[in-house]
Automatic annotation (TrEMBL):
The keyword Ligase does not apply. This is TRAP transporter substrate-binding protein. Pfam families: DctP. It comes from Spartinivicinus marinus. The keyword Signal applies.
Length: 327
């Protein structure tokens, strides 16, 4: 090998080594989420991922897999916990299957506007983080859906109008609500709503204007009852071990971006409420407000469910509600 040739050879090897070092420095995280690309939660998460990529100088590259395309909603939390994926998004109250504490934001008429929802989150955040941390999970941020309303094929004037209807539910507490209304609860993922209606598996649902508009609820329903009954939240969680493998700088970037995403998400949610109600109206859904009778019936159910929640959760429930009431 001539001197010139060995020079080229050494340079090529160095370049390869350097390249490998750069590739190793870049961490790729797959992130499953349950909701569609048009959902504000997903848009917010994509902005979060973009910010993290930029602010870490490409050290952490998060790829968002929306609408349950990588992992289905019921499996996401378990998958993050086991480290199958490092990060994911779930509806917080889905965890009420394992611990009722996580259902606090899904109790009718406990916190019905954004101000109250913020207080409820403020009162429950620490305990939520502790519970997740015991499972090796770190909470990054939590963003609310819009106040929940009822979609049906007729105007519902009283609870009795819901008796025997197949009501689409999305967690243990909406299932309980359906039972108390003497409706038939049917658990359906948001991504499957349109199919569930077109095949007759369900004939009514309680959800947000965002989901109503994104699933084109006017294709299969006629009335939206703007109850504003509770404000459930999604959360983004990360496997704590995987998080600790990031450089200290990257960890700080993720936490800062998470803080921003939480604030931005709360604003997006609130701002979109009236926009999505207007979209539904423009497409022919009749937007109605609950009658006094229906309102008081649902409030009563809210009391019953609060009591049940307290019984299920015990002292930590009592202390959390006490903090909420003081805020
Ligand atoms: N959207 C989620 C939960 C609540 C909401 O507004 C859903 O319908 O599945």
């Amino acid at each position: 090998m001539t001197i010139r040739r060995s020079f080229y050879y050494i340079t090529a090897c160095l370049a390869l080594l350097l390249n490998t070092a750069i590739v190793n420095a870049e961490m790729r995280w797959d992130m499953p989420t349950p909701y569609s690309d048009s959902t504000f939660h997903t848009r917010n998460i994509r902005l979060f991922a973009d910010e993290v990529l930029k602010a870490t100088n490409n050290e952490l590259n998060i790829t968002v897999h929306s609408a349950g395309s990588l992992i289905k909603h019921p499996e996401i939390k378990k998958s993050v916990r086991r480290g199958i994926v490092p990060i994911g998004e779930v509806l917080m109250s889905r965890l009420s299957n394992e611990d009722s504490f996580f259902a606090l934001d899904s109790i009718p008429y406990l916190a019905t506007n954004y101000q109250q929802a913020r207080k409820l989150w403020q009162a429950s955040r620490k305990r939520t983080e502790e519970k997740l941390s015991k499972q090796g999970l770190k909470l990054l941020f939590s963003v609310p859906w819009q106040p929940q309303g009822l979609f049906a094929k007729k105007k519902v004037k009283a609870a009795t109008d819901l008796q025997g209807l197949k009501l689409r539910v999305y967690n243990k507490y909406t299932e309980r609500l359906a039972q108390l209304l003497q409706a038939i609860p049917t658990q359906i993922e948001a991504a499957d709503i349109a199919t569930a209606f077109s095949t007759g598996r369900v004939d009514s649902m309680i959800t947000s204007p965002a989901i109503g508009a994104n699933t084109k609820a006017w294709d299969f329903l006629s009335h939206y009852h703007h109850f504003q009954a509770w404000i459930p939240k999604n959360m983004v969680i990360v496997n704590a071990k995987q998080f600790s493998k990031l450089s200290k700088d990257a960890q700080a970037v993720v936490l800062a971006a998470a803080k921003q995403a939480e604030e931005r998400g709360w604003q997006m949610s609130e701002q979109e409420t009236n926009e999505k109600v207007a979209v539904m109206k423009a497409n022919g859904l009749k937007v109605v407000y609950p009658s006094d009778k229906l309102h008081s019936e649902l409030s009563y159910i809210g009391h019953v469910m609060t009591k049940e929640w307290l019984n299920n959760v015990g002292d930590e429930g009592k202390s959390t509600l006490a903090i909420f009431k003081q805020l």
